[in-house]
Design brief:
Blueprint (H helix, E strand, L loop, with lengths): L7 H12 L10 E3 L5 E8 L2 E8 L2 E8 L2 E4 L9 E15 L7 E14 L5 E9 L2 E8 L7 E7 L2 E4 L4 E4 L12 E4 L6 E4 L8 E6 L3 E4 L5 E7 L7 E6 L4 E6 L8 E4 L2 E2 L2 E7 L2 H6 L2 H4 L15 E6 L1 H4 L16 H13 L4 E4 L30 H10 L3 E7 L4 H6 L1 H10 L4 E5 L14 H16 L3 E4 L15 E4 L7 H4 L9 H5 L33 H10 L4 E3 L4 H4 L5 H6 L4 E10 L3 E8 L5 E7 L4 E6 L7 E9 L12 E8 L4 E6 L4 E10 L2
Parallel strand pairs: 23-24, 23-29, 24-25, 25-26, 26-27, 27-28
Antiparallel strand pairs: 1-2, 2-3, 3-4, 4-11, 5-10, 6-7, 7-8, 8-9, 9-21, 9-22, 10-20, 11-19, 12-13, 12-16, 14-15, 15-18, 16-17, 17-22, 18-19, 30-31, 31-32, 32-37, 33-36, 34-35, 34-37
Helix pairs in contact: 5-6
Length: 691
């Protein structure tokens, strides 16, 4: 059968298959997407509860078990009996305060399955079927045999059918800063070795972090991730060789505990994105729809912006974070110079790193606890004077809080630090968590730290502070609920190009990131490097793209804050800098018009509040030409200013070669975008009048 919508015969066959397993499963155990292309079904036999996922009549996920193991509570979820099933539907539209798309449709069919164990233990399985994916979570109501539970493991399987091509990073419990690898599912070797203090030897496990993106041979794309990660450990996916897929592997601590919960509680959504082609993955908003609406109300105190900073200087070893040595970066004079540059170039903010005392010993394992106080500047940095100067110039000062992975120290000073920011009119902070987490035995992606990151966001919101987290927990759409969670790192960033011994990020890195990490949420990647060879500061390193590729990233990589990171002198006398001056960071809508994972991607975005559009496209090591139909434009004439690779541009041999031209276009035109090896193109489409 190859019909687009499951036929009556197909559903009948499906029900017959269920009946061979259990007498309790009926058509009520099915939930379909509104367009009827995706089907999720539940099955149960004796002590096992399982599910399957179909796209039309194609089985995407075969029989996969659902269970959670608790300490001191000997109960399997499959042992409970189904006592009720309820189906509902929803179709609404909501608005983001800022984002890659202003209006978002939230349309799904849902199924609630209520289970009761003979000992009184009860739980619900909540399933939602969207046109672009399936999501489900475990929900545990009140009135249980006990007040709380300790989670030993969650055993959610994803028995992926066939042997798709996968793009993945290892299931590291501390960092996401790995290059994505490409392999067939059955060939994934993501073995990570941990040696926790309580273990006698290294513990190997073969797991990947999410999002992981897969492409089947029939062209269907699947991405596995989680949504609304709240008071629960992050989920990695351990290879399940018997099922040829994955089983959830929660991030725990060195005592072997994955999580502790008081009733009632629910897990994050287990999210299965499904798309006919790669571009549809980027345009999906399922992860946002799986989170609660805005809990903060009015957000007018924060404005999306581009920002300069004292950052690239340090990665080039041109200046230092620490005060000692006479080459300190965060000085009053340099900050004012950057503020002047920002004010003169339509750049809204400035980030100053290395301003507070403690940087000389911040990586010392015996001194990290308590090393920073987040309020005391170095002698050569007058915080109040810089803040006042920035306000005079109409530039927002962004605070920097590096915790040295000592979150207890940070938590003790959150109110003090945020009150100082509020007194100076500072509404944004970049946080950092470099190093092994203190207390020892906890990990960046475990429940303890998930709760810490949330505590920071909620405390910041009370002081009208927006948070850009580095070394973060993964993005899971919580920005809908707490819009002050504006952006985060959570990937191998631009700085690796400055000092990594492996040659930095290859040209294929960001065409992969767009279809993997970016599916989770906004990225603070710091695009916009113009001097790509990094001479004379780092003669053995370079940025492995063309200059036009760097410009295109302001459109391709979404974030409501985007850095303008290069040294001031590298932007001077550069006509291409005009694109950075003009490009916005807040969008009315976005459309991905071309792309293949790891190869290339092209995205068009409409500036919020105008009829102007921007186009960005990038490619990997292979030069290529891609088509960009301009049907997204409004009726009328547009002036297209194109910033593009020259015919002889090359990411390695001639990276800074670019050209600029201007042509007239309408919505009826199609542009051929010529991308050099490792190259890109950035286009500003200005509305000029009616036809």
């Amino acid at each position: 059968m190859k019909g687009k919508i499951p036929s009556i015969g197909f559903l009948a066959a499906l029900l017959f298959l269920f009946s061979t397993c259990t007498s309790t499963i009926t058509e009520k155990s099915l939930v379909q997407s509104p367009d009827q292309h995706l089907t999720f079904n539940i099955g149960k036999d004796h002590q096992n509860l399982w599910y399957r996922v179909f796209k039309n009549d194609t089985l995407l996920i075969d029989t996969s078990s659902l269970d959670i193991a608790f300490r001191h509570l000997s109960v399997s979820l499959g042992e409970a009996e189904i006592i009720a099933i309820k189906h509902t539907s929803k179709d609404t539209t909501w608005q983001q305060p800022w984002g890659e798309q202003r209006l978002i449709r939230n349309q799904y069919n849902s199924m609630f399955m209520h289970f009761l164990h003979e000992n009184g233990f009860r739980y619900n399985l909540h399933v939602r079927a969207y046109n672009d994916g399936i999501a489900f979570r475990y929900e545990f109501p009140d009135k249980q045999p006990t007040d709380s539970v300790t989670i030993i493991d969650e055993q959610t399987q994803f028995a992926i059918t066939e042997n798709p091509t996968c793009w993945w990073i290892p299931g590291d419990w501390d960092i996401y800063e790995h290059l994505y690898k490409k392999s067939r599912l059955n060939d994934i070797d993501a073995t990570v070795y941990r040696n926790p203090p309580l273990a006698q030897s290294y513990i190997p496990y073969n797991a990947v972090n999410t999002p992981i993106t897969m492409k089947r041979d029939d062209g269907i794309h699947i991405s596995l991730h989680e949504a609304n990660l709240t008071n629960y450990p992050g989920m990695t996916l351990r290879r399940d060789s018997l099922k040829k897929g994955f089983i959830s592997e929660l991030v725990g601590n060195d005592e072997g505990i994955k999580g502790f919960q008081k009733f009632p509680f629910h897990t994050p959504w287990r999210m299965i994105q499904v798309a006919n082609k790669a571009t549809d993955l980027i345009d999906s908003r399922i992860i946002l729809n799986l989170n609660k609406p805005n809990q903060l109300g009015d957000m007018s105190w924060f404005s999306p912006m581009k920002y300069v900073g004292i950052w690239w200087d340090m990665h080039l070893n041109r200046r230092t974070w620490g005060y000692q040595g006479g080459n300190h970066g965060a000085t009053t004079a340099y900050a004012k110079e950057l503020i002047d540059f920002a004010a003169n170039n339509q750049i809204g903010g400035i980030l100053v790193e290395g301003w507070n005392t403690g940087w000389e010993n911040w990586t010392d394992p015996e001194q990290r606890e308590g090393i920073f106080d987040f309020v005391t500047p170095y002698p050569d940095y007058n915080l109040k004077q810089v803040a006042g100067y920035a306000q005079e110039k109409g530039v927002q000062l962004i605070m920097h809080h590096e915790t040295s992975a000592a979150p207890r120290t940070y938590e003790q000073q959150l109110d003090t630090a945020f009150k100082l920011m509020a007194s100076l009119g500072i509404h944004s902070v970049k946080t950092g968590y470099v190093g092994q987490i203190l207390p020892q035995g906890e990990y960046h992606h475990g429940q303890w730290m998930v709760n810490h990151y949330r505590k920071v966001i909620k405390k910041a919101a009370k002081h009208k502070v927006a948070v850009n987290a580095h070394e973060p927990i993964k993005a899971t759409g919580i920005r809908r609920t707490y819009p002050n969670a504006i952006s985060r790192e959570g990937l191998r960033g631009q700085e690796f190009n400055a000092w990594s011994a492996d040659g930095g990020n290859p040209p294929s890195h960001l065409p992969t990131i767009a279809f993997t990490r970016m599916l989770a949420g906004p990225i603070d990647y710091t695009p916009g490097i113009f001097h790509l060879s990094l001479d004379p500061y780092k003669p053995n390193n370079q940025v492995n793209t063309t200059l036009a590729h760097q410009l295109a990233l302001y459109v391709v990589i979404y974030s409501p804050i985007q850095m303008v990171p290069d040294l001031i002198e590298h932007y001077q006398n550069q006509p291409a800098f005009a694109f950075i001056r003009k490009v916005p960071v807040d969008w009315e809508e976005s459309r991905t018009f071309a792309g293949e994972v790891g190869k290339f991607v092209g995205i068009a975005r409409q500036e919020r509040g105008t009829e102007n559009w921007y186009v960005g496209a990038i490619t990997n090591e292979e030069p290529r030409t891609i088509s960009c139909p301009l049907s997204f434009l409004h009726e009328g004439n547009y002036r297209a200013i194109r910033y593009m690779d020259t015919p002889n541009a090359h990411w390695q041999k001639n990276p800074e070669a670019y050209a600029i031209d201007t042509i007239q276009v309408t919505a009826h035109d199609t542009l051929d975008l010529n991308l050099a090896a490792g190259g890109g193109i950035a286009i500003r489409l200005e509305k000029t009048g009616k036809q």
